[in-house]
Structure formats: structure tokens, C-alpha cells
Amino acid sequence: MRERVHIDTDILIVGGGTAGCLAAWEARKVGGPKLRITVVDRANIRHSGSLAAGQNALNAYINQGTPEDWVAYVRYDLLGAPVREDILLSVGYELNETVALMEKEGLPIKKDAQGRYLRRGKWNIEVNGRWLKPITAKMAEKAGAQILNWVYVTELIKQDGRCVGAVGFGVRDGRFYVIKARAVLMAAGGAAGIWRSRYEGDAHHRMWYVPFNNGASYAMMKRIGAEMTGFDTRMIPLRIKDTYAPAGTLAIGVNAPMVNALGEVFMLEKEEYVRMGGHTAPTPVRVWACYREIAAGRGPIFMDTTRGDPEKVAGLREQYLDMSPTTVLYWAAHDIDPAREPIEIEADSPFLVGAHAACCGAWTIGITRMTTIPGLFASGEALGQAPSRYISGCWTCGRIAGRHMVQWLEGEGTEVPELDPGLVAQLETRTFAPLERWSKQEFFTNGKPVRGVLPREMEAHMQNVMEDYCGGRIHYFTVSEPYLEIARRRIDRLRRDQLRYLVARDLFELERAWDVINRLDCCQLVIEHISYRKETRYLGFVTRTDYPERNDAEYDCFICSVWHPETDTLVFKKYPYEQIVPGDRTKETI
Amino acid sequence: MPPYVLPDKCDGCKNEADPWCVAVCPGNLFVIDPVTSKALCRDPGECWDCMTCTIFCPRQAIVTQVQYQLAPIPAELIPRLGKRHITWTLIDCKGRIYRLENTILAGGEED
User: Domain FAD-dependent oxidoreductase 2 FAD-binding: where (chain A) (predicted)?
Assistant: First the structure.
């Protein structure tokens, strides 16, 4: 048995990020001084997660119109597909107030000549956001939450049908953490590294989304039987080639048009793209259009910064230093000046997210943020069917979750009885199993385990399967049932009989082992959800060659799955879509 | 753009309980070599290139490079952390030097 740390708390927040830290702050505000709040993070909350390098804009802000107009835009940007308008509205009503709060906490927000927040496009404002993460983390610190840095949560604990805590290991101290809680918030981010990276070796983590977000949110919730939704979407980001830094700074930031190799502003010049919205077409459509141009021999695709606003183009390096210093150094190394030459863009590999332009996450009850497992709440990227919330929306969502958790504690979220020692022992064995296996290995002369698989080997196998058979870039992100069937067989094989060979030589590798365990669960969700939706609703993100049309009669609804451990299968159900904001779903209202 | 540590500059933050690079890396990638007592990134391929380690290093001992498979040498980007700003010195492949500045915290708040 490992050395154990037992913690008893009221609210456990898994993931000290954008949503988690604000959930802690709000829970303290409404729950009073006696409330015990615990935040757990695999790294140091001041610098962990997807904000580690900063961001230069907040992409959810009501600059004009109403929260209803914003929801109409979010819906439009996902081609009018069903979204949880109730959840989005709850965010929209509090977005601007939350941004004002964070400005007061020290976030530098740029201003225009009239002293208003500097707009970038309709729903975005510009910030100096390099320090977004420390400023966000300060909210959890101010809330007086107990902060456990460097603890990797491996499993949620379910007892009598209710989520009552989580277990994990200290990535530095090697201890086994057992945390009992009356309410648990899952806010551990989305998933990178499901599909093959664009690069290998020392650049295999040169990607848009933070590679340390491993899909643990989705995997852990799936494993305790929460209803999961939206894995038939995925985010394919068009980004600056090679550094995969955000390209919105070039598009709406400096008004650079997107052009093909012939210099055509194809989104505005070609009827088939104009019909779909031109240069402000829904995000997936722009990916689809770029790859259509490339397939027709008119690639590469560029953001033509030589045609952008010259003053703004001159400030691009500073803007990128706020979120992607790599890009600035890359330009310097290649002697690229965006004022003199267009910037090439490309699609990065797909990512699973719930707060950017995709819908992955847990299904939640009303606007409570509670999942279908009592006591388990979801926020940030872990919350399903409410896309385009971005940073400011995740802050807001965290606050709303914090409030509802306090309500739960005042009602049904009563004291948790003692944890079942047998279950805890089982979870401990499971948590450290790859380390134990290493100690029983024999080794080849070069140190490779004879009958053990290293996390990186298994990750590569998984990423190859997903790339080749689940709509990877090599197939221009298209997919069909015959490919999916191979993906299913191979991923099931890894999950069902290869994990028993997974070994880890030390705690650092144990993190990687759990990363791949979690990612494999995400693969199952993605394959089965895409397979279930026999239509093409998210053109560009998931383009099915066998079902190229939309089928509203069958699939204009939400699709959820529950995992059944006895059979290792996902059982699907549908929920009807409820339109709250009236009007044509494929049109913006302002 | 993984970080590499210059041995002559790194002192392992000998007076700190937790060396800065070890304390801030979101990937848990920095360790102190028990033999040399100097820091190193234990797996450069795992790095996401956020440069937080480089910004915080009190000795400016950490150099970040673009992976050679993506860009040739030389070029340098050297941050210097102030109270409310980061000042960056950028040296491009032609040897031209630029001085750039980011505001990181709004005025009036404690650092």
C-alpha cells in the first residue's frame, strides 16, 4: 500500500483552470466562510492548462445586441446544429459582468479612443492576456480554497449511485490521494493528442491545444456512467502553419483576407462559398472550403496580411507574444514579415473540446451543470452541447456551476458516509498498476521491457489508428463506416486487452500512462458517436462520405451515450432539441 | 520550441525551496539533475512551447529554440519579467534586434 492522503471536503474541483478557479470563487461568495473547497490540478494552477501561454482576445463578449443575439450567432457558427440554448443563455446573461470582474482583478483589457473595450469582430474584445492564467488562479486563491497542485486525478468515486469524490496520485510525492466530497466539479479541460500530431520527435507537441489536456474530463465521467454527448463533433482548427497559433488575430484582428495560391479571396469570390456565408461562414465550413481548394490544386492557403490594415499588421508580433511566442520566434527564424508576405495557414489535427467550436462533454440537467450522476457537475470544456463559450464563457460557466453546487449542498448533497474501503483499495491498485507492472518486468539488453508497452508506444498506435481510420487529416477529415469499423476494432483491442501490458518506470511515465488510458476512452466515445450519427451535420469537422447529406428526421436532436462496463459498449439515446431563441437557425440575428 | 538550459548560468535556484522552472512548467517537465544540481527539461518533445520557464528563470539561463525540423537557426527571443510587463528582445536570422513589450497586469493591482 502507498502512503495515503485523506481529504474530506464539501466541494471538490477537478482542474484548476478557467472554469474551476471561478467556480471556487463563486462557491465561496454564495456558500460562506465555512464551506470547504478543494481544487486539484496535475500541475501548478498558476500556469497549468490551455491558458499556459496566454491569449490575446476574449472571444465571447456581448459588444452589441442581446445575449439572445449571441446565442443565435453561436448556433449559426455550428451550421444551425442543435445547441443547448438554455445553457448558452445562462452564460450570455452574465458574460459581460464576469469580464468586468476579471478586469478589476488585474486583467489588462485594451480600450478604444472612447475608452470602451476594444472590439475585434462582433463578439470579441482584445486583451493583453499573457497573464490570464495567474490572474484566473488568483480567484481560487482568494476564495481560500485548499489547492492541491501536482496531483493527477485518475478516477471519480461513485457510491450508491452518487459521485462522492475522487482518487489520484501525487506526480511528485507518489502518494495516493483519496478525496471525499459532497459535490464534485469536473473541469479538467478537453483533449489534445487523440489524432496523430503533425510532427514527430521534439515537435510532436507543437499543436494548437495544450497537449497536457488529455481528455481526462470526458474519460472519467464516462467511466462512472455519466451520459456523454457531442463526440460526433470535434474541433479542427485552421491555424498558422507549423506553429498552429490562432489565426483569428490575422482574420478579424487585422482584416487579412483568406486567399488561395492564385490569390483568389475564394470565400467571397466563389458562389458555392458565398452561399454558405462567405468569409464569416460557420467555422467548420471554412475548414471544408480550404480543403476543397487544396484538393482542387489551389493550395496552399494564406491569410494575406499584405492586404490587412497596415497599422494593425505592424503590431502583430506583440499580439502573438501574448499567446504564442513560438510564432514570433518562428517568423524571426524564417525572416517572415507579415507586412511583406502572406502567412500560410493549415489545419491542425482535430481536438475534442466543449467550450470552443465543438460540443464534447457531459449531458447536464437544465442549467444546473449537474450531470446525470447526482453530485457530479461539469463545467468548462467538460460541459457538453454549449460551444463557443471560450475563456470568458468558461469563467462565467464556472461561476454558475459554483452557485448550483452550493444549492445542491443545501439540499440533497448531504454528508457522505464513509468510503467503501474495498472500493478505495481497488482504485489504488488500478491507479498504480503500470508502475507495479514495471517492477515485475524483464528487460532486453537495451532496457526495453520484454512484455511491457510504454505509454508513448501505445499513444502512437492509438494516434495512428485515429488518423488513418477516424477521419484524420490524411483523408481530408472525411470518414465512413468501413473506416470506422477498423478504428473500432483496433481501439477496442487496445482498450480491452492491451492495457494490461501498459508499464511506467516512474511517476512521470505514470502520468503518460494515465494520459493514454484516458485518451483511449475518448477514442471510443468519438468512434461510436460519429458512427451513430449517419448523416453529415458538421460539414468540415466530420464529413461522412457515406452519408453526405443532413438527415433532420433522424438526427436533428442531441445524441447521448452511457457506458456499460459489463459489455464495454455505449448505449445511445436521443433528446429533443429545444429552440429558445426564435428565428432561422442558419442565420445570425444581427 | 523546447527549452534548453545553459550550464554556466543555471545555479539550480540554490536558495529557493522549489526552483522556478520546476515550479511553473505546466507539463511537469523540469527537474534538477541530482549530479550537477542544474535544471533540465527531461523530455523536450513533451514541451508545448509556452515559454513560462524562460520568462521566470531568474538567471536567464533558459534558451528556447524552435525545433530545427520547423525552422533554421539562428534566432533568439529573450524575455525579461518585470512587475507589470514582459520586455522581449527578439533577434532575427539577419541579426536585427527588436525590443517588444507586453503588459501583463493592469495598473493599480498588487503584483
Answer: 10-384
Whether B77 contacts A332, CB under 8 Å: yes
On whether any CB of chain A is under 8 Å from the CB of B23, the answer is yes
Place of cell 470565400: A267
Whether B89 has its CB under 8 Å from any CB of chain A: the answer is: no
pLDDT at A575 over 60: yes
Smallest Cβ–Cβ distance between B109 and the set A106, A171, A201 belongs to A106
pLDDT digits (tens, 9 = 90+) for A447-497: 999 999 999 999 999 999 999 999 999 999 999 999 999 999 999 999 999
Residue of chain B whose Cα is closest to the Cα of A151: B28
Averaged over A12-34, what is the pLDDT? 98
Domain-by-domain residue ranges, chain A? 4-53+82-98+134-232+351-421, 238-347, 432-576
- Facing residue for A53 by CB, picked from B25, B50, B74: B50
Domain covering A432-576, topology? Methane Monooxygenase Hydroxylase; Chain G, domain 1 (1.20.58)
Asked if A43 and B27 come within 8 Å (Cβ–Cβ), the reply is yes
Q: What is the ipTM of this complex?
A: 0.96
Residue A1 has pLDDT above 70, yes or no: yes
Residue A494 per-residue DSSP state: I
Q: Which domains does chain B have, with CATH numbers?
A: 1-65 (3.30.70.20), 74-111 (no CATH)
pLDDT > 70 in chain A, percent: 100
Question: Shortest CB distance from A329 goes to which of B1, B26, B94?
Answer: B1
Cell numbers representing residue A173 in the block: 510525492
Q: Are A207 and A198 in contact (CB under 8 A)?
A: yes
In this predicted model, what pLDDT tens digit does every residue of A339-365 receive, in sequence order?
A: 999 999 999 999 999 999 999 999 999
CATH tag for A4-53+82-98+134-232+351-421 (out of 3.30.565.10, 3.30.470.30, 3.40.50.720, 3.50.50.60): 3.50.50.60
Reported as a pLDDT band with limits 50, 70 and 90, residue A85 is very high
Asked if residue A9 lies in contact with residue A405, where contact means CB atoms within 8 angstroms, the answer is no
Any CB–CB contact under 8 A between B77 and chain A? yes
> Cβ contact (<8 Å) for A130 and B94?
no
Which residues of B are less than 8 Å from A172 in CB distance?
28
Measured CA to CA, the distance from residue A452 to residue A269 in angstroms comes to 56
**Topology of A238-347 in CATH?**
Flavocytochrome C3; Chain A, domain 1 (3.90.700)
On whether any CB of chain B is under 8 Å from the CB of A314, the answer is no
Helix (H, G, I), strand (E, B) or coil at A374: coil
